[in-house]
Structure formats: C-alpha cells, structure tokens
Amino acid sequence: MKTAILPLTILLLASNMASAESDTSSDEFEYLETPVAEQIDDLIDDDRDGVINARDLCPETPLKAEIDNDGCATYVKTEQTMQLHILFANDSSNINPAFLSQIRSMAKFLKDYPSTSIELQGYASKVGNHKYNQKLSEKRAQEVQSALINNGISHSRIQILGFGDTNLEELGDDEVSHAMNRKVVATVVGHKGSVKEEWTIFNKIEK
After folding, report:
1. Among 79, 98, 197, 206, which is least packed by CB within 10 angstroms?
2. What is the set of domains in the chain, with CATH numbers?
3. Please, where are the H alpha helices in the chain?
4. What is the pLDDT along the chain (207 residues), one digit of tens a residue?
C-alpha cells in the first residue's frame, strides 16, 4: 500500500506546480505613471516666519521677530539722548584731556544712530571784547568738531554755532560763573526701531 501512495503524492505535487506556473502568466497589470502635482502657489517659506512666500509682503523678516498676517515684523521705536558739555580755560580753545572721553562717547552714539546730526554750540564768558568772544566761541566749537571727525564722524553731520558771550546760563560776574560759560554744549536725540521678538518653544530663559 505504501508503494502506491508515493507515486500518487508526486503526481499531485507536479500538478500543483504546473497550475501555479500557468497562473503567473495572468498576474500582469498595466503600468500607471506617478501623477505629478501641479503647484499653483509658492508654498516655500524662505525667511521661516510661518508665512509662505506667495503671501509674504516682507520676505526678509528677521528670525524670532513677532509678525503680522502679512509676514511683516513688529517694530518698537526707541529714543536715546546724549549730551556734550565741555569746558575751556580762559581765552583758550584747547580741549582739556579730561573731556576727551565725552567726545569719544558722543562719536560712538552718532555711529549707533547714523541718521542723526549734531549742532555744537560754542560760548564765551563776558570777559573782554564782544567781537573777540564771538570768534572764540566759534573756534571752540570748531575744535570739538575736529575731535569728532578724528573719531570717525563725517563733517557733513556736524554743524557749528557760536553764541559768543550771549545766551549765557550763568549770569553772575564772578569767576565761577565765567568758568561755567566757557563751553561747548550739544544735545543729540537718536531714534531707532528694534524688532519685537516673539516667544517660541526654542527660546531660552537667561539664568
């Protein structure tokens, strides 16, 4: 009986293999090309502000800036004031070295606010000839102007005005009042707009 089962088993296996080979011929499908998406708008966000290029009115927004719906940053206007007050010896336009740090600080301030200009107002005490004092006050302002230029400030941003011995703040006739009136003064107001930053999950708290 065993010898009869073995040939039958082999016959069945051969039959199954033949049918499997015949079935593979029918497993053929028509090739479909991958569809290409037609992108109408530019969905790229070059400045990474969360607003796509297609509707970004400010395409170069600084990183971390708080923006509006048009992709434009929010700016906060700041204002700073710098004063210059330099005193001179009697009948002299030489700048005392003690005031050179003031001039350097003013030069740095003018560089930080490049759209500003400065008016140097020179004064003289009520000692001596009025016409002479007028020229002396102008010369003092010119010396401060030269010092600012030497610190990198353009000549076009500096104006000079000499008041001589007029418009004085100290009206006394004593030596202290005269000393306070031998001066060059200036007040500069600088305006600047800084970007308001937006909090994100990547912000770090300063420790």
Report:
1. 206
2. 39-73 (no CATH), 75-195 (3.30.1330.60)
3. 2-24, 100-112, 130-150, 175-181
4. 444 555 555 555 556 555 555 555 556 677 788 888 776 666 777 777 777 777 777 777 777 677 677 777 766 666 788 999 999 999 999 999 999 999 999 999 999 888 899 999 999 999 989 999 999 999 999 999 999 999 999 999 999 999 999 999 888 889 999 999 999 999 998 876 655 566 554 455 555
Q: Which CA distances in Å does 204 have to 62, 67, 76, 199, 201?
A: 18, 20, 21, 9, 8
Give me the half-sphere count of Cα atoms (radius 13 Å) on the Cβ side of residue 117: 8
Between CA 43 and CA 79 the distance in angstroms is: 39
Q: Is 135 left (phi over 0), alpha (psi -120 to 50) or beta?
A: alpha
Residue 154 and residue 118 in contact, taking contact as beta carbons nearer than 8 Å: no
Tokens of 84: 């210059």
Distance (Å, whole) CA 118 – CA 107: 10
Backbone angles phi, psi at 25, to 5 degrees: -70, -20
pTM of the entire predicted model: 0.59
Tokens standing for 33?
A: 């090309």
